[in-house]
Specification:
This protein is of the alpha/beta class. Helix content is about 40%, strand content about 15%. It is built from ten helices and eight strands. It has an eight-stranded parallel β-barrel with strand order 1-2-3-4-5-6-7-8, surrounded by five helices. Strand 2, helix 2 and strand 3 form a beta-alpha-beta unit. Helix 1 runs parallel beside helix 2 and helix 7 packs across helix 8. The termini are close together. Bound molecules: 2-phosphoglycolic acid. 2-phosphoglycolic acid binds next to strand 8.
Length: about 250
């Protein structure tokens, strides 16, 4: 059975009290499954609640949605990698499309954040993906390779997971076909291999739900999914994570 990672990106939802209730439901209904990891990315204020609830379940992990690259100091409103680690984070999303397109994060900033995350011992999930205009102009692979290079440089010495999330598929109800996703996943894997990466895990994200997860995950190029909306309700998320895949 191939290993799969299910990552829940709660975005700016689920405070500490709701997170505790959510995890209580999840832990009771979802015992560890072979070769299946489930990672939760709550807002920073709920990290400790999630990490504490997870306890020593090794199939589950808490992660932070974004960090600033400096470890500490006068950066009002920001969270650093060491602070997130202290709150229980073991992983971090880097360069999510909402960071890039809502908050104006640049490729250069994404690269700095990735380095800071690795320095703090967190596992980075580097998010990449093209806009609809870029896809229509046939620039998908150019954009994705540029984002990979900005995040990882010429030689990939760190363990990293890449999440391919086409911007036009995030929160829109419109997901890429398994074939579209697989084509980009193959290009990402080839890019990573050319740069001696030890790990080539590639997730797909963008309007993944209980219905389309089966079809998407049947595509062998997908090592898992990064899910926003469909991860907010514990019952829906449990159903999605249980998706039968061979
Ligand atoms: P969505 O979000 O599943 O709500 O489209 C995915 C993401 O932004 O990671």
């Amino acid at each position: 059975m191939r290993a799969l990672l299910f990552a829940a990106n709660w975005k700016m939802n689920v405070g500490p009290a709701e997170a505790r209730r959510y995890l209580a439901t999840f832990l009771t209904a979802y015992p560890p499954q072979p070769n299946r990891q489930v990672w939760f990315f709550p807002p920073a204020v709920s990290l400790e609640a999630v990490a504490t609830a997870i306890g020593n379940r090794t199939d589950l992990r808490a992660g932070v949605q974004d960090v600033y690259w400096e470890p500490k100091g006068a950066f009002t409103g920001a969270t650093s990698s060491p602070l997130a680690a202290e709150a229980g984070a073991k992983a971090a999303l880097i360069g999510h499309s909402e960071r890039r397109h809502v908050f104006g994060e640049t490729d250069e900033q994404t690269g700095k954040k990735l380095k800071a995350v690795v320095a703090a011992g967190l596992h980075p999930i580097l998010c990449v993906g093209e806009t609809l205009a870029q896809r229509d102009a046939g620039e998908t692979l150019t954009v994705v390779r540029r984002q990979l290079h900005a995040g990882l440089g010429d030689r990939v010495e760190v363990l990293v997971t890449v999440a391919y999330e086409p911007v036009w598929a995030i929160g829109t109800g419109r997901n890429a076909t398994p074939r579209d996703a697989a084509e980009v996943h193959r290009a990402i894997r080839a890019w990573l291999k050319e740069r001696q990466a030890k790990e080539t895990r590639v997730l797909y994200g963008g309007s993944v739900n209980v219905k389309n997860a089966v079809e998407l995950l049947a595509e062998q190029e997908l090592d898992g999914v990064l899910v926003g909306g469909a991860s907010l309700d514990p019952q829906v998320w449990i159903e999605l994570v249980r998706t039968a895949v061979t």
